Every structure is written in structure tokens, then in C-alpha cells.
Amino acid sequence: MKQIIKNFNNLIKKTIFKVQNKTNIKLRISNFNKYLITFISLLFGCVFYLLIPLLYDKSWVQSNIESKFFNEFKINLSTSADISYRILPAPHFLIKNSKISLNDSKSQKFIADIRNLKVFLTQKNFFLNKEKMSLKGVIIDNANFSLLRSDFQILNEFSDNKFSNKKIKIDNSNIFFKNNLDDIIAIIKINKAVWFFDNTKLINLFNLRGNVFGVPFKFRLKSGNDSIINKTINVEAKSLKLGIFNEFTDKNNESNTGKNIISFTNSTINTKYNIKEKLIIFESNKSKLGSLKLNYNGELSINPFDLDLNIHLDNFKISKLFSLNTILKEFIKSELLFNDNLSLDLSIFANNNTKGEIFNNAKINFNIVNGKLNLDNTILTNDKIGLLELSNSNLFLENNELVLKTDVLITIKNSDQLFSTLNTSKKDRKKIEYIFINLDYEFLSNQIKFNNIKIDNNKVSNEFFNIIEAFNDNYLNNTIKSRRWINKLFNIYEG
């Protein structure tokens, strides 16, 4: 290239001075004019050089870009014949309507439709050897990515490998997450994204800025692949005051460990986990929901889904365990829990030192087996009086209402303490050891229907049954009303 420019410059000088000698005109050319002529000559030479790819055969360009794209990024690219060449802002090919597919041995599955693909080129070998033309970077603009749950395993393995140090940028695109029926369940709008290998830090980087469900967020992935795979993920949604951090370490597929931190408002959920043979074992010792401290541990199997979870709540108002917030109500009504392939064994342990609460310890069992839900072996305890236990329970949806059918056994270990706590008059105090109740409880409307009642294995009178049927859930939150109602029952109980 330098020799071409030098020869071109000498040609201009000889031509100018030859004309000057023939006309015997003493013409002086200043150094400025010489530099100006040289600059213009170089400019035209460079433009001509940069326009050389216009002469390339389009079919050659198409196949060459697909080949180099795979060699550089390990990504299958299928391009159309709609290819144009641009020199601004840097030399690149603009390709319309391209597709990206996964490495699937069974079939070619496209996961992305790209409206505009810009392939930038290194500015070498345009003239001397076009076969040595190489990629400098890629911009994907206005693309739609479609991902199923099964695709994430392939993408996860892809992120474990070393990326190219050539950047792939994504602008103004969308990610459609679909279920196995090809229904869209979520859409992520990508404003800006970039992935590449950082030669300085020796790590893969993938940064994304976008929004989901109208909520702006930032996503950042870092992964290093030496003898040990280290991967960290950061998600930040400032408008929700939500932050998610996950760190994962894979030691030659023998021992996979990690930690996860979810923070929102003034709550923090810390989890340490270990993955071995598709089983996730996890625990947390320093989590909090607002001012509430909680610990938990358990095991999770993904396929089929089987979760064994124990949650420990410190100084928690136990009566709140039976109140459902709006989000939980809608989740239950969605019927996702009533799934034959779902297995769950959840135990919530809580203690309470608040005055006015009936129970100071609780063990709430929530079980899902073959699509059926129950609360069997749930125990509520008052250390001074006795305990309440649920059995033969069934939790189901009926007419858009969540209903619990269950047997309730109340064991009274100290009846004198019970009567003292309730301020029961001495004439109404009868020795009681067991109370059996069969009932239906509607969670969403807070209605209770009593089907059967026995005290110490004896049926109660019709009058007793009529009074207990007038039970109102407000009694649970009003100590005076609940005492008055229970003492009325003791008054008519014949013993």
C-alpha cells in the first residue's frame, strides 16, 4: 500500500514539472499545495480501497460470512441474499432478514429472526487477499429471540465456553419466553446488550439493559472457565428496589456450589446451595423479611419437581400464617399447585412471644402429592394449655373458592390453666381432655362450617352445636369476644 501511494505521488510530480519545463514558465509550487495534492490523492486512494468489497460476489460474501461467523462465535447463522456494503461509520456488510439456530443434532431450530445484521470488517487484505478478510464485530438490530425452557440448558453450556473477543451488540430487540405449547409467557425488551471475552480480566461478559412487564432492569453475566467454572449473575431493577445476585462454581462437574442473594426494599434472602446429580441442597441462616428473621433449608429435584422445604420463623405472629394476601390468593386460584407432576413437602416452624396470641409455637405442614393438597400433621401449641392438630385434611378449589376439609383434634393438657386464661366462672369449669371437630374452612371468604363435634368422645347437644355454628372469624382477632364465645360453650356443655 505504501509503495502504491509513493508511485502515485511521483507520477503527479513528474507530470506537473514536465509541463512547467516545456512552457518555460517559472511556476513555483508551494509546500502547502504539494501537501494538499498529496492529501487529496491519499483520500481518493483510501476511498477506492475501502470500496473494493463492492466488487466481491454476493454468494461468496454470504457463504464466507456464515463460515467466519461460526468460526469466530460458534453460532449458526443463516443469511439471506439481501446484502449491501457500507463504508460508514466503518466498513461493514448490512444483511437483511437473517436467522440464528441452535446446535441441535435432531433438527435445525431457529431461535432468532434478525431484521438488520451489521458485520464489521477489519480494514486489511481487501485488495491483496480477500480470503483473509476477518470480522471485527457484529451489531444485531431489531431481532426477535424465541426461547423454550429446554433451550436454557444449551445457552448455559454455551456461556461456559470462552466467548470471542470480538463484540456482538444487540439493539432494539425482543426475547420471547415460551412454554412447551409455544405460548408466550414473558417478553423482555432489549434496549442495549453486548457480549464478548474481556482479554484484560480474562472473563466472558454479557451485559443487557431492557425491561420486562414494563419494569426497567439491568442484567450482567460474568463467567470464567479455567479448570473451575465461575459464573456470577447480577440483576437490578431500581424501580422495584430489587436486586438479585447469584454466584456459581462448577468443579469439573463433580461439586457445584453457589450462593444467591435476593434483596428488595428492606428485606434480604441469602441462600447457599449445592448441586449434585440434579439434586439441589440449600440453606439460609441470615435472611430477613423486613424486621422478621428467618432461616430455611431443603432439597429440590427439578425433573420431576420435588421440593422438601423447612422454614423457621423467629418471633412471628402465628395468626398471620392463616391470612392469605392478594398475590398468594391469585397464585392458588391459578391451579398451578394442583399438578400431578408436582411434589411438595413444606414445613413452617414459628414461635411467638406476643401477648394476646392463642398459640406460641406452630408447625404448619403443607403437602402436595399427585395433585392433591393437605395440611396433615399441622400442630399449633400453647405451652401452658395444650395443642391443636390437623389430620385427614384436603385442600381444594371449588367454585373459585379455596376450601379446607379437615379433622381437628384439640388436646387439653392443663384444663385449669385454660379456664384461668379464659376467666371462666367456677360453675362452668368441667374437666375436658379432648375436643374433636370436623369442619370446612373457606380461606378466601374466611367462612367456617362445622360438620361434627365431640368432646371426650361424646357428642354435644344441639344447643351447643348451634352456638358453635355462629362462630365468626373476627373472634380470632378479638380476645374479649373469643373468650366470651368459648365461655358460653362451656356454660351449656353438660360434661
Task: Please provide a written account of the structure.
- This protein is of the alpha+beta class.
- Among the domains are: 2-50; 53-225, no CATH class.
- It has eight helices and 25 strands.
- Helix 7 runs antiparallel to helix 8 (479-492).
- The chain is elongated.
- The protein starts with a helix and ends with a helix.
Sum this structure up briefly.
The protein has 495 residues and is an alpha+beta fold. The protein has helices at 2-22, 31-50, 58-73, 151-160, 326-333, 415-422, 462-469, 479-492, and strands at 76-78, 83-86, 92-102, 109-121, 135-148, 168-178, 184-198, 203-212, 215-225, 229-237, 242-251, 255-264, 267-276, 279-289, 292-301, 305-313, 342-351, 361-369, 372-374, 379-382, 386-398, 401-412, 434-442, 447-455, 458-459. It has 8 helices and 25 strands.
Radius of gyration: 37 Å
As residue ranges, the low-confidence spans are 22-27
Ends distance: 112 Å
Structural class: alpha+beta
Helical proportion, percent range: 10-25%
Count of helical regions: 8
Globally, the shape reads elongated
The average pLDDT is 81
Please outline the major beta sheet.
Answer: 25 strands, mixed
- Portion of residues in beta strands equals over 45%
Task: Please count the beta strands (DSSP E, at least 2 residues each).
Answer: 25
- Quaternary class: single chain
